[in-house]
Automatic annotation (TrEMBL):
Superkingdom per UniProt: Bacteria
Protein name (Swiss-Prot/TrEMBL): DUF2637 domain-containing protein
Length: 93
């Protein structure tokens, strides 16, 4: 399962939500940057850049929801980083 593997790698729902919010900001920056840097190409090209980056946000939000659901089932949603590390060390050793 991809979500379990991501969770085991230390990726949490908060990380996915932050990536989603960052991609929204990056969408605006890509659109504005394309408008300024590629003046001769017009609005259509800037819109394509903005849409390309903007498509990342729903994916990150979906991953955040999946990770949040897994964390609720796993019981790690409210655990601190130190508690998670201790649990992992206890399982390994």
């Amino acid at each position: 399962m991809v979500v379990k593997k991501m969770h085991d790698m230390g990726i949490r729902s908060e990380h996915a939500y932050l990536a989603a919010m960052a991609s929204i900001g990056l969408t605006v920056a890509a659109w504005a940057g394309s408008m300024k840097l590629e003046r001769g190409t017009g609005l259509a090209r800037a819109d394509r850049w903005g849409l390309f980056v903007g498509e990342w946000a729903p994916t990150f939000f979906g991953l955040g929801l999946a990770l949040s659901h897994y964390e609720q089932q796993d019981g790690t949603l409210t655990a601190t980083v130190h508690e998670l590390r201790d649990q992992r060390e206890h399982r390994a050793g």
